[in-house]
Design brief:
With 367 residues, this protein is α/β, with parallel strands linked by helices. It has two domains: 200 residues, Rossmann fold (3-Layer(aba) Sandwich), CATH 3.40.50.2000; 157 residues, Rossmann fold. It is built from eleven helices and 15 strands. The chain has a seven-stranded parallel beta sheet with strand order 3-2-1-4-5-6-7. Strands 11-10-9-12-13-14 form a six-stranded parallel beta sheet, with helices on both faces. The chain has a two-stranded antiparallel sheet with strand order 8-15. The protein starts with a strand and ends in a 6-residue tail after the last helix.
Length: 367
């Protein structure tokens, strides 16, 4: 089978997802990559078609780029893809517009089926995702994004087969775009339960970017009430990092680890300990799945897609925002925690689910 993958992604979970499924698919199929980005993740693919676009210098240039250059070059790429007559065309979300322009120009035929992996709506388009929401720069950004949101919704309407990353995202997607979607959880495979346990040492960890949506402020406000406990937060530095550093000022039992390497992340995941996953309305949370996959225990919020990774009382605990303090108090009084691993990280399984969807769209039996 001939497969084509188009993306305009930078570093992050969506790019990791795409690279993992591409690696699996190329074992049995011919896979070509088309992109506006040069990514090391795809360096060993024989057919990597790179189309250069200008880097965004400011908000107004960002608007012009998305309206004109990105649109015209997407049309050019779509023409080439349509002429190649691929069996499966996988289109990923775009870091600039979310729903890419190329969806308007690709042809969904009996032979070629297009699957748009959108994962989730772009949160900064539709939610308050920063602590400095009312600063002038943020306000200007939202004004400009009004046009980008129109582009996003219009392009998305051209997609016939959409994949989101959770049932939570599916519902949000329906509300924003008025579009139906298929759910394929990234990397998640259910397995027969395996009993495991960890010793309680009152040292907690959090692993995700330093942003408002990741809920680190909630974890900080809870752990500071327990002086005998410790919290280490590891993640990528971004615009909300300054706010978080102010929150932990003069708090000795909370430490930050910034921009940790892949090796350090693996070492952290091997600790077999308790992770606080207080993400707010997290659509899915691949880091939560990585944590659970490494035999760690999760205390998370019963909001968003976290509940699709954490089964309450089985591989972790779920709580409401105002109830996590009681959960920590409950954990602190225990010496060990017995729990059951019931999910694992498997990109092979995700790839097979995508192929099964393709055969379903073609009215063919799944292999």
């Amino acid at each position: 089978m001939r497969i084509c993958i188009f993306h305009n992604l930078k570093k992050g979970g969506a790019l990791i997802y795409l690279a993992k499924i591409a690696e699996y698919l190329k074992k049995s199929h011919s896979v070509d990559i088309y992109s506006f980005q040069k990514n090391k993740s795809f360096h060993d693919f024989k057919n990597y078609y790179f189309y250069k676009i200008k880097k965004t210098k400011n908000l107004f240039h960002y608007l012009l780029l998305t309206l004109f250059e990105l649109n015209q070059k997407s049309k050019k790429i779509a023409k080439k893809i349509n002429n190649q007559k691929y069996d499966l065309i996988i289109v990923s979300n775009d870091f600039l517009t979310q729903s890419p322009h190329i969806l308007k120009y690709l042809k969904n035929t009996k032979q070629s089926k297009i699957i748009f992996i959108s994962h989730e709506p772009k949160r900064e388009f539709y939610e308050k995702t920063t602590y400095d929401h009312m600063k002038i720069k943020r306000v200007l950004s939202r004004i400009i994004r009004l046009y980008i949101k129109i582009i996003d919704k219009y392009n998305c309407k051209k997609a016939q087969n959409i994949v989101t990353n959770s049932f939570y995202s599916k519902n949000v997607f329906q509300k924003i775009y008025k579009q139906k979607s298929y759910v394929i959880h990234p990397g998640l495979e259910r397995i027969n339960i395996k009993k495991t346990s960890i010793k309680i040492n009152n040292h907690y960890y959090s692993l995700s970017d330093f942003s408002k949506t990741k809920g680190h402020h909630l974890s900080i406000n809870i752990i500071k009430l327990f002086p005998k406990s410790e919290l280490t937060i590891a993640g990528r530095k971004n615009n909300d990092f300054v706010y978080i550093t102010k929150l932990i000022k003069n708090i000795k039992n909370i430490k930050l680890k910034i921009n940790i390497s892949s090796a350090s992340k693996i070492k952290l995941l091997k600790k077999k300990t308790i992770f606080l996953c207080n993400q707010i309305k997290e659509p899915f949370g691949i880091s939560n799945l990585e944590i659970s996959n490494s035999n760690n225990y999760i205390i998370g919020l019963n909001i968003g897609g976290t509940a699709e990774i954490v089964d309450h009382g089985i591989n972790g605990l779920l709580s409401q925002i105002n109830n996590t303090q009681k959960v920590i108090k409950y954990i602190a009084n225990k010496k060990t925690i017995l729990f059951y691993k019931n999910k694992r990280l498997s990109w092979e399984y995700t790839s097979q689910k995508l192929l099964s969807l393709y055969h379903f769209l073609k009215n063919e039996p799944a292999y």
